[in-house]
Design brief:
The structure holds 2 protein chains of 2 kinds. By secondary structure, chain A is mainly alpha-helical. Chain A has 31 helices and no strands. Chain B is α/β, with parallel strands linked by helices. The chains are: A mainly alpha, B alpha/beta.
Chain lengths: 645, 330
């Protein structure tokens, strides 16, 4: 069994034989392509019957929603929870919220974090966006609370029961990769317009990381510890509550953190279905093509993200006894807590004396709108020739040929090459899954659009990985560089893409290349972070040994650091692909067309719903395909081999 | 260890308790004035305005925002209503008539399928008459092209210029820039049926289209694409409409066979049946509301080019134009 599921390459003893096989394989594929080009292709058929069938899903929802009372109950409950947080924030007023943020910073991290936290919240008011920020924060708190209530228990189960974990993995994949646009419309039909469907859309995106990271934490508890607990007669419940959970706390803290980040990335999308908050400001600015105003609101989202990130990050560390600050006494901690609580009480009482504690005093306003617009105007006219040339080189030189091959080759040949390639890299199981994804794409009637999107995704991923690995290596070797780029990476990940799409269009015109630029900006930060973390985790002893043996810095990097951080590099590649796919729909807003456009038109045009849904599914399939192929790269065992062994 | 955890727990409980007490009195016993100001999240809560709450959709173009700004100003300041204005795409807003989440759409660009479903079949929405704005959809080029190539404004000559419009996205053909998938378009059929050597490349959003036309004007680069009027961009740069074969009644009946220009859209208002049945002042105001392309463009210009918020723009127009709006009042 192991022999068959293991990567094909692993079974070939000699390196020459493997190279020879690869060569033959390549030559055969090229020959077949030359012989059968433009035959057996699947041009896009707008009137593919399945789309109409899928339109029926929507019609069914419309007809039956009144009889499905449960949706009304869910809507009411979620609306109530968001309303509760709204009321809490309004009750605290701006002085209360600022002080509470500072107090939490003080308790979790100390004075510096307290200043960052309170200062960040003050900045939201100073930007003139207090009210929108609080609306967004209330929705975020509700969404994160529910995500954790669902994600952590399920994550614990997934961490303890491998079969459950295996069963839900594809569902989690779909939840994360399926573009929100594809199901946004039916959701408003079921849950109405406003905060309820918005929160549910956020949940779908934010539960998977909470669940996955919790499961990872539980699984990460050393076997020996578990066995020790069991041998002392602990029940399963005792092992969980006394051993696994405490030891997994730090990891679960990371899960909370990631859940918040995922939630914030949904802010603009939720504004499309009537949820108030910062997303509305971004959307309205976009309508007026006012980059400065969009930036102003986007900056508020970034600030909110950074403050919440640092707060939860430190809170997670505090939960882990290993990270406790040395020399800190109980008494000191108690004093800090007392100071924090009394500050919040005082601020709350002060807020009560204000006429309207929810209105931030608008005497101090920092306005980025005009300067940003001036800068954008300058960039637009100064670089346009150079950027246009770059776009043309990439589009004509790489993108068009690649897309041409993928769409003009017989579809059977593409499936065959993917199957053989996946088998070679990652084993038979991965090959079967990859080929199945492509066959379902054929069945869904979106082959040509799928191949067009695949071409852009491949180019975007290649650029992301090339730049990301390079910057990740620099970041791992130069602490100062790492400190300098951290806020930039935070901003790139949380600034809504909508903000920088307009300057990108001005520089690169509408089209696939502009979409690739947006995808690279969004997908690079996690790649840089993972590569950085991977190289830094290489044991210092090993590096010392290499240096002692006379390795140059270059040799150290290529022969020691990179090979030893292979797992992190693969994870980086994997995350890069997922993030690039998440931008397919956003890319369609600037002219990338293909699947992303199908999804958007499914959201906005009644008769295109079925096609949009199908396109959303194809994006998921492409994601699963690329994931399975890359998982086995570099000899990392595929899931199949792992289970067989 | 145990005690320090207790300390932290106490602090946490104290903060949560405080937070809970904070939200309690906000609605009730707090200082006068603060109750109305707290934005209660529950959507069912009755609003403070004497006339009640009117929920209007702001569809995603600035003209729609201008309509809403003026009506909102009048409803709130002159008639004592509160207005909840929510930015929503048309397709998302219409179902709101059925669920009571939307009371009015002030500018409808002809959506026969939605009208059929919500006005005719389900009878949850009602046509509230024209808003006076004429919608023009068509093919546009930047002004410099019409000056340099005078005969480009006739679609019959477009093949001559296809070479100019070639881009990395359009292959051997000229690129025709399509727009947001939300909009009504016949461009692919037109290109096929008029035998034009062009390919429709969708910009994907209104913002991308506007940016493209701005750059084509500033950089004098060739561009032809789908655009419309009223639109605030026309007050900033000049675009010239390309003449397609004239529209005649029924020439666009079959979607795949269209070979004529877009019709002139008489834009209308749609309101929820419940609002119409109430026959309230709000309904009368919305029903009477009618202005011109110039009026709308003026308010859109306030919002887009003069740095006013939508509310400020609405208030300013109302202050300056009593002669016009007094005719709409119930």
């Amino acid at each position: 069994m192991t022999a068959i599921t293991a990567p094909f390459s692993a079974r070939l003893e000699s390196r020459t034989a493997r190279r020879l096989l690869l060569l033959i394989f390549g030559v055969v594929a090229v020959l077949l392509y030359v012989l059968f080009q433009d035959q057996g292709t699947l041009p896009h058929d707008k009137a593919y019957p399945l789309f109409e069938t899928l339109n029926g899903v929507r019609a069914w929802i419309e007809e039956n929603r009144d009889s499905l009372g449960v949706f009304g109950v869910i809507r009411g409950a979620i609306g109530g929870l968001v309303g509760f947080f709204d009321a809490v924030l309004a009750g605290l007023g701006w002085p209360g919220v600022l002080t509470l943020a500072g107090a939490l910073g003080l308790i979790f991290g100390g004075w510096r974090l307290a200043l960052l936290s309170a200062g960040g919240f003050a900045a939201l008011g100073i930007l003139g966006l207090w009210e929108s920020s609080m609306a967004t924060l209330a929705q975020m708190l509700a969404a994160v609370l529910i995500s954790l209530l669902v994600g952590i228990p399920l994550g614990i189960v997934a961490g303890r029961v491998p079969r459950f974990a295996a069963a839900i993995t594809p569902i989690l994949d779909a939840m994360q990769i399926m573009p929100t646009f594809a199901y946004l419309l039916p959701m408003t039909l079921l849950f109405g317009i406003g905060v309820a469907p918005a929160t549910i859309a956020t949940l779908i995106y934010a539960i998977p990381p909470a669940l996955r990271i919790t499961a990872l934490g539980i699984r990460g508890v050393p076997k020996a510890t578990m066995e020790a607990a069991e041998s002392m007669g602990s029940t399963r419940w005792q092992t969980l509550s006394k051993v696994q959970l405490p030891l997994a706390r730090r990891t679960i803290g990371i899960g909370v953190n990631q859940t918040i980040m995922m939630g914030l990335s949904m802010v603009v999308i939720t504004a499309l279905i009537g949820a108030p908050g910062l997303g509305v400001d971004v959307l309205r600015a976009l309508q007026q093509v006012n980059v400065g105003a969009a930036f102003q609101a986007g900056l508020a989202i970034v600030i909110l993200a950074i403050v919440l990130d640092r707060l939860t990050d430190r809170a997670g560390e505090r939960m882990d006894p290993r990270f406790r600050r040395p020399g800190e006494t109980r008494r000191q901690r108690r004093i800090v807590a007392a100071v924090a609580v009394s500050a919040v009480v005082l601020a709350f009482l002060y807020a009560r004396t204000l006429a309207d504690p929810t209105a931030f005093p608008d005497t101090v306003l920092v306005d980025f709108r005009d300067p940003v617009n001036a800068i954008v105007g300058w960039i637009k006219t100064t670089f346009v020739e150079a950027t246009n040339a770059i776009k043309n080189v990439v589009s004509f030189g790489i993108l068009n040929p690649l897309q041409g091959v993928l769409t003009s080759a017989p579809w059977v040949l593409v499936v065959g090459v993917v199957f053989a390639g996946a088998w070679f890299i990652s084993g038979l199981r991965a090959a079967v899954i990859a080929a199945a994804c492509l066959l379902i794409t054929v069945g869904l009637g979106l082959w040509e659009h799928g191949m067009e999107t695949l071409a852009s995704v491949l180019v975007a991923t290649a650029v992301t990985l090339a730049l990301g690995v390079l910057l990740g290596i620099v970041s791992a070797r130069k602490d100062r560089f790492r400190t300098a780029i951290r806020p930039i990476l935070d901003a790139a990940q949380t600034m809504p893409a909508f903000v920088y799409l307009i300057p990108a269009v001005a520089l690169f015109q509408t089209g696939r290349f502009t979409a690739i630029v947006a995808a690279v900006i969004y997908a690079m930060p996690p790649v840089i972070r993972l590569v950085d973390a991977g190289i830094r985790s290489v044991s210092p002893t090993v590096q010392e040994a290499a240096r002692a043996a006379g390795s140059t810095e270059r040799q150290l990097l290529w022969k020691v650091q990179l090979p030893l951080s292979r797992r992190a590099l693969l994870l980086a590649a994997n995350q890069g692909i997922v993030m690039v796919l998440a931008m397919v729909v956003v890319g369609a807003l600037v002219g990338a067309g293909a699947l992303g456009f199908d999804v958007i038109s499914g959201f906005t045009q009644r008769e295109d719903f079925g096609k949009g849904l199908a396109a959303g599914i194809v994006i998921v399939l492409l994601g699963i395909m690329l994931d399975r192929i890359t998982q086995g790269a570099g000899g990392r065992p595929s899931t199949g081999a792992a289970r067989a062994g | 260890m145990q005690q320090s955890r207790l300390a932290r727990l106490t602090a946490g409980v104290a903060i949560v308790g405080l937070v809970l007490s904070a939200c309690g009195p906000a609605g009730g016993s707090a200082a006068p004035g603060s109750a109305a100001a707290s934005p209660a999240g529950s959507e069912a809560a009755p609003s403070a305005g004497a006339g009640g709450n009117i929920k209007i959709a702001i569809n995603p173009w600035v003209g729609a925002e201008a309509n809403v700004a003026v009506i909102k100003s009048l409803l709130e300041d002159k008639l004592g209503y509160t207005v909840t204005a929510t930015p929503l795409a048309e397709e998302v807003a219409w179902p709101g008539f059925a669920t009571g989440e939307i009371d009015a759409i002030l500018e409808n660009w002809g959506h026969p399928d939605l009208e059929q479903k919500y006005i005719t079949d389900e009878a949850v929405a009602v046509d509230a008459g024209l808003n006076g704005v004429d919608g023009i959809i068509g093919w546009y080029v930047p002004e410099w092209m019409a000056t340099q190539y005078p005969d480009i404004v006739d679609s019959a000559n477009l093949n001559k210029y296809a070479e100019l419009f070639k881009t990395s996205e359009s292959g051997d053909q000229g690129q025709f820039l399509g727009s947001d998938p939300t909009f009504v378009t016949n461009d692919e059929a037109l290109i096929k049926n008029l035998d034009l050597n062009y390919k429709v490349v969708y910009s994907g959003s209104e913002a991308a289209t506007i940016t493209a036309f701005q750059q084509a004007t500033d950089q004098k680069t060739p561009l032809i694409g789908y655009f419309y009027d009223p639109q605030w961009l026309h007050s900033k740069i000049k675009l010239v409409k390309v003449n397609l074969p004239a529209w005649t009644e029924g020439c666009d009946a079959v979607a795949n066979a269209v070979a004529c220009d877009y019709p002139l859209y008489k834009l209308n208002k749609i309101v929820a049946k419940t609002l119409a049945d109430s026959d309230s002042d709000a309904y009368k105001l919305i029903k009477n509301f009618t202005w011109t392309n110039a009026d709308q463009n003026l308010v859109a210009d306030y919002i887009t080019n003069q740095g006013m918020s939508a509310d400020e723009a609405g208030d300013k127009w109302v202050a300056d134009n009593e002669a016009i709006w007094s005719a709409w009042m119930p």
